[in-house]
Amino acid sequence: MAAGVAVMSISCSQTEEIKFDGNAIVVKCIVPGPDAEEDFATGINIGSDTKAAASPDGFFWEEGDMIGIIPTKGSQIYFEVKDGAGTSTASFDGGAWALKSDATYWSYYPFYPDFFVEKNCVPVSFEGQCQNGNNDMSHCGKYWCLYSAPASAENNALTFEYDHLTSFFKTYITLPAGKYTRVTFSADSEIFIKNGYFDLSSDTPSIVGEEFTKEISLDLKNVEFLTPTELVSYLVVAPVNLANVPITVTIYDNQGISYSYSVTKTKAMEPATTYAFRANAVTTSVSTAEEANAAFAAGQTEVEFSVAPDSDVSLIPPHTSSDVKVTFPDDESNINISISYANDAASSPEHLTFNGPNNANLVFNTPNTTV
């Protein structure tokens, strides 16, 4: 085969082949966007996501993208985007390299810069992710892991069919005005993968963790809100079994103020899926318990309202970390407050704040709650 071989990589949901004149390699790459976007707590499918923030339609190659190709024998080589960045079809140039008809080739993305890497141990790391601006995915590319089934040259063609190894944590959290610097997701045990590897030669490659952590984080740059605004952030993650594991989401601003809430998933994570975290950290003032519960149902995490004299109040916050602020009337009255959390098995009274002179008249009817 002649030197200066070009590789064409197609990013699409259907099969395509692009053929070059002469001795060029033909490569077919199927790279769909993640299969689904689902609510983290409920598992309800709420849409789909893609690699490039500029496109809602599919996986787009970006300038500087490199794919790694590992042959049966010998060192890996890389191909870099030559033409077509920002589109679903890009040509990759690997320089002076030729196919062997009796060899098998594996491909993966993003390229790991070690020519002696073995196909059964391709390293991955999820540390150092930083999002520049609200609702921007441009940082995700170098953490978004793809792999292909093995391929052999046939009729001067080499076909790679990519699939996903990673998933996303995506936030839709309404925050007060401020400048925000960090988002974290934490658990009680070291369950998240910081660093690991995957085995291209496996029948079903998956990310194997080597270093674990209780907390994974996304740094934020140029995320400043002048009014209450929804923070949309993206963190690439290795799928792990988070079934029945409480996860706390915390957002930090540059003044040392943080906003957090907890949520529990009912099943294990899957690759090629975006998991959405929805909440509202802006305090809502309401006049009735019905309005408070409606606000909770809409994703509000902090609700403040005044209790009418001699009333029975039933509150249904979504999580044990939701803040409920209750203001009592000034006159002498008897008030019964019942708290039952919608998405948690146990109640947590430390997130209840009571203002007013009549705290002594408060009666709790909530099971498993002690005050």
Indicate the topology.
Layout: E1 5-10, E2 36-39, E3 45-47, E4 66-71, E5 77-83, E6 89-95, E7 104-109, E8 122-125, E9 130-132, E10 146-148, E11 151-152, E12 162-164, E13 167-175, E14 178-186, E15 192-198, E16 208-213, E17 215-221, E18 224-225, E19 229-237, E20 246-253, E21 258-264, E22 273-280, E23 284-286, H1 289-297, E24 302-306, E25 312-315, E26 323-327, E27 335-339, E28 352-355, E29 362-364
Parallel strand pairs: 2-22, 9-17, 13-22, 23-24, 24-26, 25-27, 26-28, 27-29
Antiparallel strand pairs: 1-6, 2-3, 4-5, 4-7, 5-6, 7-10, 7-11, 8-15, 10-12, 13-19, 14-17, 14-18, 14-20, 15-16, 20-21
**End-to-end separation:** 78 Å
The poorly predicted ranges are: 1-30, 48-58, 345-349, 357-371
Beta-strand fraction estimate: 35-45%
How much helix, percentage-wise, in residues? under 10%
DSSP, total strands: 29
Summarize model confidence as the mean pLDDT: 73
Radius of gyration (Å): 26 Å
Listing every helix as H and every strand as E from the N terminus to the C terminus, the arrangement reads EEEEEEEEEEEEEEEEEEEEEEEHEEEEEE
Q: Assembly type of the shown chains?
A: single chain
Indicate the overall shape: elongated
What's the tally of helices? 1
Largest sheet: 8 strands, antiparallel
Structural class, please? Answer: mainly beta
